[in-house]
């Protein structure tokens, strides 16, 4: 496993490379010596080799992965977009050995922490992809391969002028519909009320989805472990909103 990434071609322009929202803000952040050791020692066990496009976190257009080959079995697949430090997905993977899990994240420090947690928990049914999540969902994973797709607390882009950068929009809904099997579930959560309303509006009108909840909001997803991030939002008085949509 190497941490070197191919250099972009000379014609590469980072301002115009991506015309769709990405699953991250920036990739900066210090990796501690312990995290670097985890990357080197645990990477071969947990990291998915992702063929790259022009950018360091992009996915080559012809790149494909077969989950059955990746895990060595056929099992329900759960994919998390923006897994952070892995609290939710490691908890779920260790609690559900009958399922397979893929965490998608671009922050290397977070991925390293996730691998450490997974190794401590003995979560052999978890793999990690260092990549821009929409590209993973759009072409890297097979169509209809995921049983559940999780988007928990994506960047809210709180300033009005930045809200066009939010991940959950009609383009993302189409990509999510592609990767989910019929009957699969898209689960979302946020502590920003206006983003929750936007998510609901987008998915209520998205082809291929129907509500998997009654009333105004879904019940809190019971398999989502309470993280410090979620608790911080609640402590500030922000309501945690859950949504769930079924692929039809």
Outline the fold blueprint.
Layout: H1 33-46, H2 67-71, E1 77-81, H3 87-95, E2 100-105, H4 108-121, E3 126-130, H5 133-140, E4 146-152, H6 170-179, E5 180-190, H7 193-204, E6 209-211, H8 228-235, E7 241-247
Parallel strand pairs: 1-2, 1-4, 2-3, 4-5
Antiparallel strand pairs: 5-7, 6-7
Helix pairs in contact: 1-4, 3-4
Plain-language structure description:
- The structure is a single chain.
- The chain is of the alpha/beta class.
- It has a single domain (49-247), classed as 3-Layer(aba) Sandwich (Rossmann fold).
- It contains eight helices and seven strands.
- It has a seven-stranded mixed β-sheet with strand order 3-2-1-4-5-7-6, with helices on both faces.
- Helix 1 packs across helix 4 (108-121) and helix 3 (87-95) runs parallel beside helix 4.
- The longest helix has 14 residues, at 33-46.
- Mean pLDDT is 89; it is low at 1-18 and 24-28.
């Amino acid at each position: 496993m190497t941490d070197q990434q191919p250099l972009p071609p000379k014609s590469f322009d980072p301002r115009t490379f991506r015309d769709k929202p990405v699953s991250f803000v920036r990739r900066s952040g210090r990796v501690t010596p312990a995290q670097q050791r985890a990357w080197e020692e645990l990477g071969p066990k947990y990291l998915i080799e992702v063929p790259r496009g022009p950018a360091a976190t992009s996915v080559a257009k012809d790149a494909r992965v077969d989950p059955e080959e990746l895990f060595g079995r056929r099992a329900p697949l759960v994919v998390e977009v923006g897994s952070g430090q892995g609290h939710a997905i490691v908890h779920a993977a260790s609690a559900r050995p009958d399922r397979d899990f893929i965490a998608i994240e671009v922050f290397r420090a977070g991925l390293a922490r996730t691998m450490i947690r997974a190794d401590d928990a003995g979560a052999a049914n978890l793999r990690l992809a260092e990549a821009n999540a929409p590209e993973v969902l759009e072409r890297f994973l097979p169509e209809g391969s995921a049983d559940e797709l999780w988007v928990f607390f994506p960047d809210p882009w709180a300033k009005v002028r930045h809200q066009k950068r939010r991940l959950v929009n009609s383009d993302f809904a189409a990509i999510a519909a592609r990767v989910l099997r019929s009957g699969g579930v898209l689960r979302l959560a946020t502590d920003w009320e206006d983003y929750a309303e936007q998510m609901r509006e987008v998915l209520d009108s998205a082809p291929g989805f129907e509500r998997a909840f009654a009333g105004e909001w879904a019940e809190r997803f019971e398999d989502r472990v309470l993280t410090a991030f979620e608790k911080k939002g609640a402590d500030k008085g922000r309501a945690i909103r859950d949504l769930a949509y079924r692929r039809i």
